[in-house]
Amino acid sequence: MSTIEVKNLHFSYVEGDEILKGLNFVIDSRSTAIIGQNGAGKTTFVKLLKGLLKPTEGEILLNGKGIKDMTVAAIAKHVGMVFQNPNDQIFKNQVLDEVMFGPLQIGMDKETAKIKALEALEIVGLAEEKHTNPYDLGLSRRKLAAIASILAMDTEVIIFDEPTIAQDYAGKERIKDIIRKLRNDGKTVITIIHDMNFVADVFERAIVFAQGHAILDDSTKMVFLQKEILEKSYLEQPDVMKLCYELGFKEGFLNVEEFIQGKMNKR
């Protein structure tokens, strides 16, 4: 399990206009969702974590080593990221070649890269599409191919940027299963996302970004119980939690399964 320490992290694209304003937290073993309105600094933070940007002050430590002292290539061996738009990630003519590309770039031999790629395609449900051109897949399945390309790299940290975009119910359920598997395999899983229902179903921890600060950081349930703070950050509670309050329930349930279990336990 990787350790990510964020210490007094500041960042500005333009001098005098800070995007991040002194973030301090540790990403632990819990799957973590970073949520907040557009412009809150979520994407900027992820770019800093990937080494694509350098902090103006403070630091991010990956397993005790400052990211700003590492090359992007070195970070890529530890941190994989699934882009929001798979079209920004995919460029090969065959799905298998696409999924093998990342592993090869971080130093895997061809045989190992192929084994990892085939395993990843099995996980995302695209094993039978390995010789298909990725652009012959629909957008939702293209996103799964992009996910497979990161899974095959077998990095310690996996970041999902808006994983539910373009996904139907079945696609979302498959991605939920993938995230749970990664968590159970000891991977550090992070997402930046606007889908609060997905967060409630899958992620153990939520960090709310607002105006460059982390204003809430707790278990997912405890964060979503802070209705007034969420509203000030232009965020909503998950649908089930909102419905429970409208129906007069005092408890805050994250999803249907939790609601049913909670009611059964009180019988």
TrEMBL record:
Instruction: Indicate where this protein resides in the cell.
Output: Cell membrane
* Origin: domain of life: Bacteria
Cite the entry's keywords alphabetically.
ATP-binding, Cell membrane, Membrane, Nucleotide-binding, Translocase, Transport
State the PROSITE patterns in the record: ABC_TRANSPORTER_2
Predominant location category: membrane
| A Pfam family reported for this protein in Swiss-Prot or TrEMBL | ABC_tran
InterPro entries named in the record: AAA+_ATPase, ABC_transporter-like_ATP-bd, ABC_transpr_CbiO/EcfA_su, ECF_ABC_transporter_ATP-bd, P-loop_NTPase
Q: Where is the ABC transporter domain?
A: 4-236
Task: Report how it sits in the membrane.
Answer: Peripheral membrane protein
Q: Name one GO molecular function term.
A: ATP hydrolysis activity
* Chain segments annotated as transmembrane: none
GO cellular component terms?
A: ATP-binding cassette (ABC) transporter complex
Q: Which family does it belong to?
A: Belongs to the ABC transporter superfamily.
Q: What is this protein identified as?
A: Energy-coupling factor transport system ATP-binding protein
> What organism does this protein naturally occur in?
Anaerocolumna aminovalerica
